Amino acid sequence: MVELKTDTSIDAMYAAGQVVGRALTAAHKAADVGVSLLELDEVAHDVLREAGATSPFLGYRPSFAPTPFPAVLCASVNDAIVHGVPGRYRLRDGDLVSLDFGAELGGWVGDSALSFIVGTPRKGDLRLVETAERALAAGIEAAVVGNRIGDIAHAIGTVCRGAGYGIPDGFGGHGIGRRMHEDPGVPNEGRPGRGMRLRHGMVLAIEPMVIGGGTDDYHAAPDGWTLKTNDGSRAAHAEHTVAITDSGPRILTAR
């Protein structure tokens, strides 16, 4: 069931989304050669504490996961697509990093992700990150009252496939509100004009993921959480929490 949020609730979600934006900005700023992923997790955790917010990631355990998620931040490096578990790995020059973060404040949740390169970038990585951001922008542009979920999916997929990249099957965006994952699902590829019609008050986490090698194949790492590309190519991820309103899409996790 899809819950339509009131304008007051959307404002409350914006407050949660700003905590998310501050945490991602702080973690991005702290990311440098020699910094560990655990240190980035602590930077993000500090922002939560200062805001009086909690983490919807910490302790989360969906049906596929062998253990509860042990951190507040997903940190995926190079061939990791999403759900990377922060550990002692220290960032190296040229690493492609995707950070995904959520916050719960006042009973409402925000969720967002960004990708970037540490130190000296590879040309191909810059294009990969830029494509993920363009796909996100295209998805948001399609998130207007009267359109359908398929219009968002088609907009994202057109950008990703047009750049020659793969899209991991079965993973995409989702509704969000009181819980991190709500109905409806928001695929990263689909046919326009299909699916649920978008209405004022729907709030969606729109999140394209792209695989640089052009295939859609991935596997779970031994930790049971991290999804990695089968061909070893790099991946990027971008996400915002977006409210569908009569005045157009409103980004609640803007940084």
Folded structure, characterized:
By secondary structure, the protein is an alpha+beta fold. It is 28% helix and 23% strand. The protein contains 4 helices and 13 strands. It has helices spanning 7-30, 37-51, 123-141, 149-162; strands spanning 73-77, 80-82, 96-105, 108-117, 173-175, 182-186, 203-206, 209-211, 218-220, 227-229, 235-237, 240-243, 250-251. The strands form 4 sheets. The protein has a 5-stranded antiparallel beta sheet. It has a 3-stranded antiparallel beta sheet with strand order 1-3-4. Strands 2-10-9 form a 3-stranded antiparallel beta sheet, with no helix packed on it. α1 (7-30) runs antiparallel to α2 (37-51) and α3 (123-141) packs antiparallel against α4. The two termini are 30 Å apart. The mean pLDDT is 97.
Quick structural overview:
Its cofactor is Co(2+); Zn(2+); Mn(2+); Fe(2+). Monomer. The chain is of the alpha+beta class.
